[in-house]
């Protein structure tokens, strides 16, 4: 892209964004008409994402738009799979942040080649947005981490009797150990968590006497449960929050 | 076109250069740092003292170099102390969970100082030209630390500070500068978009421009 092309793209982008900020959004086709034809396709996809985002953020549609809507609208531009994944990923972030937090399955429902897109999208989200988690005890926020996969919660050493907690990391799974001030050794993990999708984890209680609730429902020992993010687990008197790290 | 994650890689080359030196020099594992931040959150004197002793001299030096480079006088130690107070209060409010290395902490504190020095000069409204010999006259006398730290860590830290400073000056006082500061403070793109009232895609586009500017600065540095 030459400097002049770059400039005309920047101008068009600025105008489109400003039109939304002023509450008088430009029509997408009009907005891209000022740039050279060769750049219109990519710019149309960008503007579609901006358009989608502002509609969700400002909550202005009775039927808010989704990627499917824009895919139909931009058919003539013959978008490729990469464009769709970008738009879907953006839609997922936007709706998680300002909207109804759909599942990936819901987003892809009825979408052409949904199966293929599903795995590409999951991989992209998993790669770009690691699980975020933090631990709270009686409203005191103890730790906060944003990592790809979180593994164990537990005391840092056996003689650390005053209840300090740590989280360490492992790419394979999330093992969760909560120790209280009366215990003198790091306990066996109470709970194991695995991320099994961009918006899902699998939780399994190991210790038979552990009281663990997910959305007020008890998790039973040795019975893996598939749970959706964002998630709040109540483990004894601790709360553990998991979410995508957008 | 696939979204890339927050551009924490911004300045990463420079920071990575620093990281090894800092880690070698005073290795602080993630667990130790967690403990330290936890201590600050709980208001433990030992942790507060440790952070103060280790980082305050750098912050004073950074505030001084920044204000001097802009020909501004002012209470550099006051700016550094204010940054330290903000850090302690932020840690107490449960922020800064992403700090994993000493370098992360240093970077965060540097950014807070940058913000404070910008706010200080704006609020103060007086641009005081300082002489080379007289810059300590602005000291409020509360803190006695006047010497700039020396050694490899300080040297490397200065490189980071200078690069940051150069980048911010090159970007000018506009939305790009705000994005750099918010990114370095660990805010996610949707939060930045919300705060600045722009779209996430625009935030990402600006980040690409920032990267290009940074690259130019690095190239110019290498040419020198």
User: What structural class do you assign from the helix and strand content of chain B?
Assistant: mainly alpha
- How would you describe the shape of chain A? elongated
Count of DSSP E strands of chain B? Answer: 0
Share of helix among residues of chain A? Answer: 25-40%
Tell me, what is the CATH class of the largest domain in chain B?
Answer: Mainly Alpha
Shape of chain B: globular
What's the rounded overall pLDDT mean of chain A? Answer: 76
Mean pLDDT score of chain B = 66
Quote the beta fraction of chain B.
under 5%
* Computed CA radius of gyration of chain A, to the nearest angstrom: 23 Å
* CA-CA gap between termini of chain B: 35 Å
Strand content of chain A: 15-25%
DSSP summary: helix tally of chain B: 9
Task: Please describe the biggest sheet of chain B, giving its number of strands, its sense, and whether it closes into a barrel.
Answer: none
Count of beta strands of chain A = 12
Largest interface: A-B, 38 and 24 residues
Pfam families (chain B): Sigma70_ECF
Protein name (chain B): RNA polymerase sigma factor
InterPro entries (chain B): HTH_Sigma70_ECF-like, RNA_pol_sigma_r2, RNA_pol_sigma_r3/r4-like
Organism (chain B): Rosistilla oblonga
Walk me through this protein's architecture.
The complex is a heterodimer of chains A (246) and B (224). Chain A is an alpha+beta fold and 246 residues long. Chain A is 37% helix and 24% strand. In chain A, the strands form three sheets. In chain A, strands 2-1-12-11-8-9 form a six-stranded antiparallel beta sheet, with no helix packed on it. In chain A, strand 1 (131-137) and strand 2 (140-146) form a beta hairpin. With 224 residues, chain B is mainly α. Chain B folds into two domains: 22-120, Rna Polymerase Sigma Factor, Chain: A, CATH 1.10.1740; 150-223. In chain B, helix 3 crosses helix 4, helix 3 packs across helix 5 and helix 5 (102-124) packs across helix 6 (152-171). Chain B is globular, with a radius of gyration of 17 Å. Mean pLDDT of chain B is 66; it is low at 1-28 and 123-152. The chains are: A alpha+beta (246), B mainly alpha (224). The interface between A and B is medium-sized, with 38 and 24 residues.
């Amino acid at each position: 892209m030459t400097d002049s092309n770059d400039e005309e793209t920047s101008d068009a982008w600025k105008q489109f964004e400003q039109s939304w900020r002023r509450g008088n959004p430009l029509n997408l086709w009009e907005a891209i008409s000022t740039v050279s034809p060769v750049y219109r396709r990519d710019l149309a996809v960008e503007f579609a994402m901006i358009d989608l985002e502002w509609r969700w953020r400002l909550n202005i549609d009775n039927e808010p738009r989704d990627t499917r809507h824009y895919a139909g609208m931009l058919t003539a531009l013959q978008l490729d799979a990469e464009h769709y994944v970008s738009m879907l990923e953006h839609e997922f972030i936007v709706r998680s942040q300002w909207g109804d937090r759909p599942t990936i399955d819901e987003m892809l429902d009825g979408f052409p080649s949904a199966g293929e897109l599903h795995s590409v999208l999951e991989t992209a989200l998993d790669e770009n947005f690691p699980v975020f988690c933090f631990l709270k005890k009686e409203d005191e926020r103890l730790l906060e981490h944003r990592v790809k996969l979180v593994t164990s919660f537990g005391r840092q050493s056996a003689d650390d009797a005053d209840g300090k907690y740590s989280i360490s990391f492992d790419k394979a799974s999330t093992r969760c150990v909560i120790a209280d001030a009366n215990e003198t050794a790091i306990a066996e993990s109470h709970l194991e968590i695995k991320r099994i999708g961009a918006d899902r984890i699998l939780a399994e209680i190991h210790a038979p006497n552990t009281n663990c609730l997910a959305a007020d429902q008890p998790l039973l020992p040795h019975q893996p449960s598939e749970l959706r993010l964002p998630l709040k687990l109540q483990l004894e008197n601790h709360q553990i929050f998991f979410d995508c790290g957008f | 076109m696939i979204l890339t994650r927050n551009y924490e890689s911004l300045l990463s080359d420079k920071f990575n250069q620093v990281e090894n030196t800092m880690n070698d020099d005073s290795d602080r594992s993630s667990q130790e740092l967690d403990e330290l931040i936890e201590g600050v959150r709980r208001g433990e004197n030992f942790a507060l003292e440790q952070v103060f002793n280790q980082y305050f001299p750098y912050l004073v030096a950074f505030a001084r170099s920044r204000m001097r480079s802009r020909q501004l006088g002012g209470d550099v130690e006051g700016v550094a102390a204010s940054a330290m107070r903000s850090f302690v209060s932020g840690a107490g409010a449960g922020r800064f969970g992403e700090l994993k290395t000493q370098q992360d902490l240093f970077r965060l504190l540097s950014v807070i100082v940058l913000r404070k020095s910008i706010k200080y000069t704006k609020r103060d409204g007086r641009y005081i030209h300082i002489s080379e010999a007289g810059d300590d006259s602005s000291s409020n006398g509360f803190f006695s630390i006047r010497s700039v730290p020396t050694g490899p860590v300080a040297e490397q830290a200065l490189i980071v500070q200078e690069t940051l400073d150069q980048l911010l000056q090159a970007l000018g006082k506009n939305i790009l500068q705000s994005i750099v500061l918010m990114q370095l403070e660990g805010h996610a793109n949707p939060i930045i978009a919300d705060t600045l009232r722009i779209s996430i895609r625009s935030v990402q586009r600006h980040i690409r421009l920032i990267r290009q500017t940074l690259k130019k600065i690095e190239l110019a540095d290498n040419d020198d």
